[in-house]
Design a protein that fits this description.
heterotrimer; A alpha/beta (375); B mainly alpha (544); C alpha+beta (356); B: 544 residues; mainly alpha; MetI-like fold; 2 domains; 24 helices; globular; C: 356 residues; alpha+beta; Rossmann fold; six-stranded mixed sheet; five-stranded antiparallel sheet; 33% strand
Chain lengths: 375, 544, 356
Amino acid sequence: MRNLSQFLYRLLPILLISAGGLTACAPISPLPAAESQTPTSLPSQPEALANEDPIAESPTSAEVNGKLVIYSGRSEALIQPVLDAFRSKYPKVEILIKAGSNSALANALIEEQSNPQADIFITTEMFTAQSLAQKGIFQSYFPKGAESLSAEFIGPNQTWIGLTRRARVIMYNADLVAPEELPASIFDLTNPKWKGQVAAAGSTNGGMQAHIAAMRKLLGEEATANWLKGLLANNVTFFGGHTDVRKAVGAGEFKLGLVNHYYYHLQKAEGSNVGIIYPDQDEGQIGLLTNITAAAIVRGAQNLPAAQALLDFLVSPEGQKLFAEGNYEYPLLPGVPLREGVTPLENFRLAAIDIPSIALDLEATFKLMEVVGLP
Amino acid sequence: MLRAIKSLPFPSKPLPFSSQLALVAGLVALFVALPLAYIFLRALSANPEDWLRLLQTRLWRLMGNTLALAGAVTSGTLIIGVSMAWLTERTDLPGRRAWRWMLALPLAIPPYIGAILHLALLRPRGGVIPKFLEGLFGFPVPTPSPLGFWGAAFILTIFMFPYVYLLSGAAFRSQHAMLEEAARSLGRTAWQTFWQVTLPALRPGLLAGALLVTLDVLAEYGTVALLRYETFSSAIFAQLYGRYDRSAASILSGVLVSLALLVLWSEIKLQGQARFTQIEGNWRPVPLILLGRWKLPALVTVLLVIAISLLIPLLVLLAWTIQAVLDPQTLSQIFRAGPQGLAQSAWNSLWTSALAALFAVTLSLPVARLSVRYPSPYTHFLARLCQVGYAIPGVVIALSLILIINRLVPILSATPHLVVIAYVLRNMPQAVRASESAIGRLSASLEEASRTLGRTPLQTLFEITLPLILPGLLAGGALVFLTSLKELPATLLLRPAGFDTLAVRVWVWASDGYYIQAAPAALILLLVSAIPLSFLLHRTAMFQ
Amino acid sequence: MKTLEVQNLTKRFSSTTQPAVNQISFALEEGEILALVGPSGCGKTTTLRLIAGLERPDCGSILINGRLVASESRFIPPEKRGIGLVFQDHALFPHLTVFGNVAFGLRSRRNESRHKSAPNAVKAAVLDMLRLVGIDFLASRYPHALSGGERQRVALARALAPRPSLVLLDEPFSSLDADMRLTMREEVRKILKSMQATVVFVTHDQEEALFMGDRLAVFQRGQIEQIGTPDEVFHTPATRFVAKFMGDSDFLRGKISSNGIQTEIGLLLQPVSLPNSTLVEIAVRADDIDFEPDESGNAVIAARFFRGALNLYRLQLDSGQILHALKMHTYLVPVGTRVRARISAGHPLAVFEKSA
């Protein structure tokens, strides 16, 4: 097991190079930024190929039935509406879902490689998808209608496909925080002024892991460690997931929360008086961090037609609209409108991250979280 | 709660030692001990760098956190458990009979459900009660927080005290009036008698109760995770859940299991010295103490404990369930057909727990028979080995199963069978103890009589042994069933896709803060748990 | 052919202690009752269990009706030995009625051929057996609703019902109170004899052994000290242990002289084939000793025990030795009285060379 995981770590760097730096080299550019693609991430790059499967044809709806096993890093509550919509289209499919953390599910996929149990893997950040692709966990499939997707959202050899994009923001309780004292940077979260008033997701959360990995690259080991230590010293409360964070901020248990942008919208929709800050927009600051969710078909999937149908659905305008409407995310398919109230990413200065080198150090990120003692 | 402390009533002489039996029992013990051995192996063979890093960072803090919580909860349950038992068994408290039941029933409520309720009600600024108070007074009123050490200690205490309550209640009840009369005649006051005679005589029961509580606290995941108090169990879970590398999880597991084994070992040592035989002859119950003007305060205290540990949780769950049922959207969400529906989850809970109970009891039989009928260092070692499941928390069982099964029996990985195996491993001790006590009560001569009357060993098993020990086995099975129903961390980690139990359903909703959606599953879980629990309670002397 | 033959039987339970049963041999004729008697832990019950097949011997062999059932290389399990065993605790099956208990042995595979497709035959056999032991009216009761004596009868009926070639009884009366014991043992003996059963009977009570046994085997430390008829064992004990255990004997020290044995209370005129001056002990029972008050006597009354029709006196000889003597209850001598004790046995006494 140990060897396996070490192997995975060693692979991660290479994989992440090919991960397609969604935000890489795209500091200010509006999205989509296909030209920011690192060469290795292109589907045609042979060294990134996980397998040589011919890219399968899309299924016809007649043959879509049976059980479809999904491992989802996205929490069940957030993915369920989309899956329900899929089922209303393909009522003969029975969906079995196991929701968990990206890393727990990735471990399961690796362990089950010789005896695959899952058909589809859905992840909240493409690092995991990329590394698994490199290990040959996934099979190639190019979803119907995905041609208009920017190449940076497609895994090597079309092993995974991007679904949505989300931004890392600070949400605040507007009852408790006056507009003039709002933080403008994630570094303000370590200001003693906010001591005990900040909530965030902990080290098991994929979004937080990716966030720290990116910061580590942008600012270096020490500055990131200091930031994390600053959070700990400031008595930041770390929850298992972001839902807890947004609810706590919404309820006024905390003034500020470090979350993905849609948690702000979800909480606001529940009637809370909350606000959103897109941090680090000034010159000299790191810019807005973003992340991509992805889905892939597991090699050896028992129900290929249904898996392919689901992938088709997820990147179809209908599926993309569900993500955008239901969950306030940024759809990756061009032309799908944002939900009302969601600010287009084009309005922001995005973080300039060098994805390949982050990937090289992903193991160091895990170690950093442990050494700092991030819960 | 169901441990036979008294010695066996019949002499048990062996039939010729059966090597097949010894072999089967050995295999069972091996099966039970394998996860333990594997975890130790992994922990010891882990990279020294990992050890060092853990030693420098988290290990001591986790150790301190875990021990502090275990100590606090054990003390708390002893205080509440013994005082409740004393009030309902030894005094003229009005309504004792009803309170007895209500004080035992919280065992059907998994502490993590209690934690969910307290979070929803009391969480600072966000809970129902603080919000209500703030609305009432116009400013935030400080309320006790369920979070952190004190919250976790409080919640674990109020849902675990029934262990101590039942064991000390049984001990109070079996105590002979003569003991206290002797003390009084030797010049002790009633108060001195209580401290010098009554309480020390409870020691075996108290130790057994304290052991159960301590080991349960060590193994508890859901409560501490929800209340954000980091112990070994929650740290291991996080490590398994959020990291790729399993060596740190193995190290933490190794340390946790050592801790639990230490607790188990010291209980065995202490218990060995404290085996009191009851006085034979005409047993007479101790006369009730008249509370007099203390009647009302005592009644209020008992009612308060019952309200906090049973009535309020039940009422809140009921209210939420009604709320969930009345809201069409929520209703369709939770009562949906398919794998995430309540019906399917309840069925999964039932069949896995029942299967685990069946397997655990069946597997316990050869071990129990061997250790009762052929007492020897070897057979005792086997029986002890089967007790270590107590000391292996669910997360650790999950970790070792993930590691072992994928290597040895990949066909089982990602199947519900894995969940069943985890339940069997974790609950084997309860089954072994129940079977041992059932077989111990069966005179060996009955089996021998059957043999001399022409029955083979197998015929004897089915015609004599099984019919006679069946009630005892059912009790063991009920206990395994009950604890399997409530099991959370191993189920979370081991379940295949689309396989939810009631506990998982509760957790999935509640860990995201959807308390109302979680309520129906929690309520069903409670009601289902109450069935084996009341069966078990009916068997104990206190409720006859 | 002997019904039971036991040869050089040895059983040890652990390698460190001495054997529980050590090299014993004996044989039983058909219809004979053999009582195994001895103090607790002497190996008599182990012997019984070895015969029953509930223990496996380390050495030696057991033959039942000429069939080898146990040896170093062969072990027939209890269910195939055709024996009936009455347990000390009766071991009645609590989940079966009296009828069910007695029928249990008749319904086994071993007996199936005999009662094939004949439930009526089983019923008749059970009722016959219950009638024989006098409890046919209890057939539908469960064991917990029976008295001690009734349980005893059920246990006996259950063991006898399959008509075993050998009946084993393990202290069957030990759980009964004194009154019941006397009636039961008489009745059980009558039943066993009426069925001409071959029986091995284990007891620690010598009186019971003398009553029940056609022959007795006296056990000590895993070995048979003596085997013989009640008369032989009682009157001519082969060893000091048998004399002590079977008759509550005192041992009077003496020295062989040319015309008898010189003792503290006089010369015993009894020829003994031992050289002169050999130190011996004479086994004397309370009925072998008499005394009368005598100021210049050789003993003092140390205590008196009321024994109904008789009084038992404890005499302390001048040497400190203790003897007992029986007197009619009307003959009263106060404690402390000086008396002259003498041997008054009308029969030869057992004499043992005094061990150094």
